[in-house]
Amino acid sequence: MALKDILSASLTTDLQNGIDSTECESEKWRSKTAYTPSPRGRTFFSGAVSTLMKGFTMLRLMPSPLKRPQFHFLTLFYLLTNLGNATCAQELTQDRGLWAPITLKSPVYKKVEASLEVQPRWQSTAENGISENIIRAGLGFRLTKNVSIFGGYYWSSKFEEELDWENRLWQQITYSKKFARFSLQNRTRLEEIAQEEPLGAAWRVRHQIRFSYDLPKTKWYVVVAEEPFFYLNGQENGPRQGFNQNRVTLAVGRKINRCVRTECGYINQYKNNRGSPDLVNHILLTQVSIDLDNFFSQKKFKLAHNHHLKAAAP
Known about the structure:
The chain is 27% helix and 47% strand. By secondary structure, it is of the alpha+beta class.
């Protein structure tokens, strides 16, 4: 065979081997860098898409009277509750509970206000039924008609073997606005949490947005609310930085009089338990709220009116 033919054959073989090697390396690189979603990620994505489609289908198939804007909270509540829980059932633990807060708010002096809340909680997984009892006290100042700031102290007595108590300092700012029958409350609260263990304080921020709608010609109203929680720092053997939990609430309330109202409803609590299965807590809410601001305002009006009548008398 001529030298020219030998060199040509050798060059062709080397070139083909180089091309095959390059394609092999390229295929390896693509396999390493290609995004392959995890089973949990695929499940969450498919669950979220399925939830959105079901929500829009529910809105489309609603009877005509329920398609009015004031009833869209039904679809909103469905989406908020199920999007947060769009993970596979094998990775979630379920619990049931009852929360029964009683809140009191009263004016102190001019624009200064005080608040007190007592809230016992029961859980089905608690050894004695009752899981904790909460006392939250605060003092606030009304900056404007729609904006107020509050701060105070929180104490929780835990009925658990691994945790006996929890202390918190808390500060919040609230914006409230009423639009005809609709009411909006937008609240941001910062908490400094200290527990028996671990040592040190965990900083947590929580933001609640709450809508309510007064039903026509009645004292009844409907409430939809959502409140996500985020830890700003992490602790060893304690909470980790980042998303902590989310609460979605649907409730029906009734105004008993100018000062007292009651609410009863459902809270869906989703907790991000890192290192263990996440928790979905199904909670029955029964709440009594007492606001003495309306009582004192009405009393001042009556006193001023009586004084005016006496002054006008001959």
